[in-house]
Design brief:
Strand order of the largest sheet: 4-3-2-1-5-6
Order of helices and strands: HEEEHEEHHHEHH
Structural class: alpha+beta
Distance between the termini: 42 Å
Number of helices: 7
CATH topology of the largest domain: SH3 type barrels
CATH class of the largest domain: Mainly Beta
Number of domains: 2
Largest sheet: 6 strands, antiparallel
Strand content: 15-25%
Length: about 190
């Protein structure tokens, strides 16, 4: 009995130590990175794999499944070669637009429930009355624009926030690299 428990416990401990590297990669989001070199060439569609003292290791893969099956190559770039590093979240624009559309639709539905009434337009000759008569005549006519406008605005705002990228100037300087190393660590796969 003790031998069986010992074998099971050693199997569990051994399997978790093997999978620890994979779980490290699976937990962190992978940021798509563009590295502009001092020779004005750029390495695009890469990911920062690891930060070292005087160099950066970049990877050719931007998908998590490529790391799990080993389908990636790494390249070491020394700091004097690097002019600028630009990172953005993969599919950030699409994700931002979807989330913004959802929030806008929810907001629009809440507004539509608040304005849904069949009160007639007041005949007092005011600007409010003109707007009321020119745009909506019934509660059903009010719902469409009340939902559509916040949905479109939410989609645009989400797209703007999702497409944000971060640029870190290095200019071949070890001092600038060390100053920005904590920022770069956020975008690195390995610490």
């Amino acid at each position: 009995m003790k031998l069986t428990v010992l074998i099971i416990m050693s199997f569990i401990l051994f399997s978790t130590s093997i999978l620890s590297q994979e779980s490290l990669i699976l937990k962190k989001p992978i940021w798509e990175t563009k590295v502009v070199l001092s020779s004005d060439t750029a390495i695009e569609h890469a990911a920062i794999f690891e930060l070292k003292d005087s160099s950066i290791v970049i990877s050719s893969a931007t998908l998590k499944k490529d790391y799990l099956i080993g389908n990636y190559s790494i390249q070491k770039l020394y700091i004097p070669q690097i002019r600028m590093i630009q990172s953005k979240r993969r599919r950030g624009l699409l994700h931002g637009m979807v989330i913004g559309t959802g929030f806008g639709l929810l907001t629009g539905c809440l507004f539509a429930t608040m304005v849904r009434d069949d009160r007639p337009c007041i005949q007092d000759g005011s600007l409010r009355n003109y707007f009321c008569e020119a745009t909506w005549t019934s509660a059903e006519d009010k719902v469409g624009p009340t939902v559509l406008i916040p949905t479109v605005l939410g989609m645009l705002a989400g797209g703007l926030f999702g497409s944000i990228s971060f640029t870190i100037p290095i200019d071949g300087s070890i001092e600038k690299y060390n100053r920005n190393k904590k920022k770069l660590a956020k975008y690195s796969i390995k610490k």
